[in-house]
């Protein structure tokens, strides 16, 4: 079992920034691909970013490339720095974990947290 707890969401004006955090714990979470996904109201789960530890590579969804940055620190906390936010970034953001990257791309993570809401006003 992998436990994920997100925080850091809120209301921000377009062009602003937010940083989301995710505390990960549980069984050898480092064996999973870790990432972020989001779900806008009425929509499906959209891939945002992910990191593969074995190759040390980070992947981003097309809609967030160049604006969002995935990172982690040594205390098993993951971050999503979101800059130049747009109203279309408004969504519930989830920290996710999966056995492979494809599951995150396909919106089918093995684990996810309760999420944190991000609202971007125009």
Keywords:
122 residues, four-stranded antiparallel β-sheet, mainly beta, 1 helix, seven-stranded mixed β-sheet
Q: Count the DSSP helices.
A: 1
* C-alpha end-to-end distance: 39 Å
- Percent of sequence in beta strands: over 45%
The run of helices and strands is EEEEEEEEEHEE
Provide the structure class.
Answer: mainly beta
Q: Assign a percent range to the helix content.
A: under 10%
**What is the alpha-carbon Rg in Å?**
13 Å
Strand tally is 11
> What's the rounded overall pLDDT mean?
94
Q: How is the biggest beta sheet arranged? A: 7 strands, mixed
Written description of the protein model:
The chain is mostly beta strands. The protein contains 1 helix and 11 strands. The protein has one helix at 101-105; strands at 2-7, 10-13, 18-26, 33-39, 45-52, 57-60, 68-72, 77-82, 91-98, 111-112, 116-121. It is globular.
SSE inventory with pairings:
Layout: E1 2-7, E2 10-13, E3 18-26, E4 33-39, E5 45-52, E6 57-60, E7 68-72, E8 77-82, E9 91-98, H1 101-105, E10 111-112, E11 116-121
Parallel strand pairs: 2-11
Antiparallel strand pairs: 1-3, 3-8, 4-5, 4-9, 5-6, 7-8, 9-10, 9-11
Quick overview:
It contains one helix and eleven strands. With 122 residues, it is mainly β.
């Amino acid at each position: 079992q992998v436990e994920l707890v997100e925080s850091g969401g809120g209301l921000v004006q377009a062009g602003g920034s937010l940083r989301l955090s995710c505390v990960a714990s549980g069984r050898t979470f480092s064996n999973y691909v870790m990432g972020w996904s989001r779900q806008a109201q009425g929509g499906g789960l959209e891939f945002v970013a992910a990191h593969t530890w074995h190759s040390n590579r980070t992947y981003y969804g097309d809609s967030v490339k160049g604006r969002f940055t995935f990172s982690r620190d040594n205390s098993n906390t993951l971050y999503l720095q979101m800059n130049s936010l747009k109203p279309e970034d408004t969504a519930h953001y989830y920290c996710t974990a999966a056995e492979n990257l494809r599951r995150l791309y396909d919106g089918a993570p093995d684990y996810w947290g309760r999420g944190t809401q991000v609202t971007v006003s125009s």
